[in-house]
Design goal:
It contains 1 helix and 41 strands. It is mainly β. The protein has 4 domains: 67 residues, no CATH class; 101 residues, Immunoglobulins (Immunoglobulin-like); 92 residues, Immunoglobulin-like (Sandwich); 183 residues, Immunoglobulins (Immunoglobulin-like, Sandwich), CATH 2.60.40.10. Strands 17, 20, 23, 25, 26, 28, 31 and 32 form an 8-stranded mixed sheet that branches. β31 and β32 form a beta hairpin. The radius of gyration is 47 Å and the shape is rod-shaped. It starts with a helix and ends in a 7-residue tail after the last strand.
Length: 467
């Protein structure tokens, strides 16, 4: 409805309502810049879609209202966009309004009860905000540089028309995961074997991250009643009655869908006193031969290891062996395991005796012994002394050293053929300068291959000497 039509209605004294109602308004012109405004009595209603806006206090005849003619009411052209942004990045919210007229567009942060901007004028003192206007597109844009978590929330685009119109856009500020040192376990932890240990990892981020535990070497994690899983979720990981095989690096990985995920490496040292395992405790060797003794130790903290020899004198004391032209010691370590060996070359009578491998750490001491003796002269050409230890494979030593040692004497000629038995076998002959070994099944029986005839075996208990 334009000004002329409204003037005619004023002159005729009749207003037609939505339901074809008629009323005789008594109107007077009101001063409102840019609009032709009339305050009228005794009208029912009219159609806002025709370009007339009514502010009616009563819909019955006799009510008083205001008719504003000349422009349609402001309307939103599209919803305000919702935005999800990673912390530190820039965002923009756009509000498109048609038929704004003399009205103003305001941006309000509802969650902080803060007026951010009115039209292009910045109200807040936060310099990261700015407001812009595109007259061609009828858009009013709120810009935000370097979004922070406190910037998240509901933003209201409000037009101060009568009646007021509003719409809301939502800003979500997401934060990549992080692991907070406060409240998390240290990077290196020491615990005694058999005790329980709880590892914690506190994750932070928006949304709250999920924490997953894994072992760095890919081995399973034992938890609860020694159940094992490749990975476990939760802020904490409890290892009950922890064992030495559970030593190593554990990774806690925090992720929340916002890249990148982060992890923390926690190294766990399980401490225990030394343990020593000697595969062959009695060895026979012809004069002039060579032999290597093996000794396997486990200890954490890492043990000090060395070899000693019984002097055999009145005091019967141990003397630490030092390297010489014929005797030398060596060792290799992997984790808490150490493999010690002692090599004696050009065996002499003075070398006969008991040799000990010793391992010491702050929690205790352990030792193992090997008795070296000379073989009978009559065995020097066609016999070998076989030393059999009923123990598991050297790669998986028992938790306690095996004490049982059985000697087997055979009149078999030296051959490339092997013993077929269920445990470790060590043999030394006059024409051999190395130690032969075989580990097969774990049966405790001992037998010879059928093609070995005329075999005589003599078994003796540990620490008995061959006659």
């Amino acid at each position: 409805m334009d000004f002329e039509t409204l003037n005619k209605l004023k002159s005729s004294g009749t207003v037609v309502g939505l339901g074809n109602e008629t009323a005789r308004p008594a109107c007077k012109k009101c001063g409102y810049p840019g609009h032709l405004t009339f305050q009228c009595r005794n009208f029912l209603s009219t159609n806002p879609a025709s370009g007339v806006v009514l502010d009616v206090s009563s819909t019955r005849a006799g009510g008083i209202g205001t008719i504003v003619a000349g422009e349609p009411a402001p309307v939103f052209l599209e919803p305000v966009n919702n935005v999800t942004v990673v912390i530190g990045r820039d965002i923009s919210l756009t509000c498109a309004v048609d038929h704004l007229g003399p009205n103003k567009v305001a941006w309000i942060h509802l969650d902080r009860h803060m007026i951010v901007a009115i039209h292009q004028h910045l109200v807040t003192r936060i310099p990261r905000y700015s407001a812009t206007h595109d007259a061609h597109r009828n858009t009013w844009t709120l810009n935000l540089r370097g979004a922070q978590p406190e910037d998240a929330g509901r933003y209201l685009c409000q037009v101060n028309s009568n009646p007021m119109i509003t719409q809301v856009g939502i800003v979500d500020v997401v934060v990549p995961p992080a692991i907070v040192d406060a409240g998390s376990s240290a990077s290196h932890i020491t615990v005694r074997e058999g005790l329980s240990l709880t590892l914690t990892c506190r994750g932070d981020g928006v949304p709250a991250p999920k924490v997953t535990w894994r072992r760095e070497d890919g081995r399973p994690i034992f938890f609860g009643d020694k159940k094992k899983e490749a990975s476990i979720e939760g802020d904490s990981l409890t290892l009950n009655k922890i064992g030495r095989t559970e030593s190593g690096a554990y990774l806690c990985i925090a992720s929340n869908g916002v890249p990148p995920s982060v992890s923390k490496r926690i190294w766990v040292d399980v401490e225990f006193p030394p343990m020593v395992w000697v595969p062959a405790q009695i060895v026979g060797l012809p004069l002039g031969g060579s032999v290597t003794f093996d000794c396997f130790t486990e200890a954490q903290p890492k043990a000090i290891t060395y070899w000693t020899r019984m002097t055999g004198g009145p005091s019967d004391s141990d003397v630490v062996l030092l390297p010489s032209r014929r005797i030398h010691a060596d060792s290799t370590s992997s984790g808490y395991r150490t493999h010690m060996n002692l090599t004696i070359q050009s065996f002499e009578v003075k070398d006969i005796g008991t040799y000990r491998c010793v391992a010491k750490n702050s929690l205790g001491e352990a030792e193992g012994s090997v008795q070296l003796m000379e073989t009978e002269p009559e065995h020097s050409n066609n016999e070998m002394i076989v030393d059999v230890e009923f123990a598991k494979d050297v790669q998986s030593p028992p938790t306690t050293p095996q004490k049982t040692t059985i000697l087997a004497r055979s009149t078999v000629k030296p051959s490339t053929s092997t013993w077929q038995q269920g445990n470790r076998v060590q043999f030394i002959s006059n024409n051999s300068h190395s130690t032969g070994r075989q580990s097969t099944t774990r049966n405790s029986g001992l037998s010879l291959l059928p093609r070995w005839p005329d075999v005589m075996i003599l078994l003796a208990v540990t620490k008995l000497l061959l006659l």
